[in-house]
Amino acid sequence: MKTVSILLILSLLNGCASAPKNTVEAATNYLGKVNQLNTNISDTSSIDLEKQKLYEEFKNYNKKAQEDIEKRNEEIAKQVITGIAVVVLVAGLLYLRANTNLTPLGNPMALCKDGQFSYSEHHQGTCSHHGGVNVWYR
Fold first, then answer.
1. How far, in Å, are 23, 102, 111 from residue 114 at the CA level?
2. Distance, CA of 127 to CA of 9 (rounded, Å)
3. What is the pLDDT of residue 1?
4. What angle do CA 101, 103, 109 make, to 5 degrees?
5. Residues with Cβ < 8 Å from 9, sequence gap 6 or more?
6. b/e string for 68-95 if b means 16 or more Cβ within 10 A?
7. Model confidence band, residue 6 (pLDDT cutoffs 50, 70, 90)
8. Read out DSSP for 45-109?
9. Torsion sign (Cα): 101, 102, 103, 106
10. Residue 136 has what pLDDT?
């Protein structure tokens, strides 16, 4: 019965993309050892003892593999949260950049095409790095 259960687990693990390769190998190794015990040992009590030992080893290894998967998932979640925080920060900075300098301070020369005010002394070169002049004020 345990062999059938392990075969079922093995087939599920082989179909699961997130199953660690080591877990599938451990399950395969476990089944091989159990089958070898069934054919090589005539004393059934020692077979059961050996099967129990192998099963406990497999169970412990599977538990460690599951912990590794959970740890990786936590790391991925942290990276996703960090990525979202960066996107929100950049969006906020872009919003602030787009909405700053909307009210002129003092007496600007012109309003540039990108929304920035120019306080240059002369018309020549005014807003040259901002897409040109949109509106002249003086």
1. 59, 11, 8
2. 69
3. 46
4. 85
5. 27
6. eeeeeeeeeeeeeeeeeeeeeeeeeeee
7. low
8. HHHHHHHHHHHHHHHHHHHHHHHHHHHHHHHHHHHHHHHHHHHHHHHHHHHHHHHSS-S--S--S
9. positive
10. 95
Residue 23 CA to residue 95 CA, distance in Å, equals: 49
Residue reference for tokens 């901002």: 130
Cα–Cα dist 135/138, whole Å: 9
Structural domain spans, the chain: 2-99, 102-138
Q: Judging by beta carbons within 10 Å of its beta carbon (0-12, 13-18, 19+), is residue 127 exposed, middle or buried?
A: buried
Confidence (pLDDT) at 40: 58
What are 13-50's pLDDT values in tens digits?
554 444 555 666 766 777 777 666 666 555 566 667 87
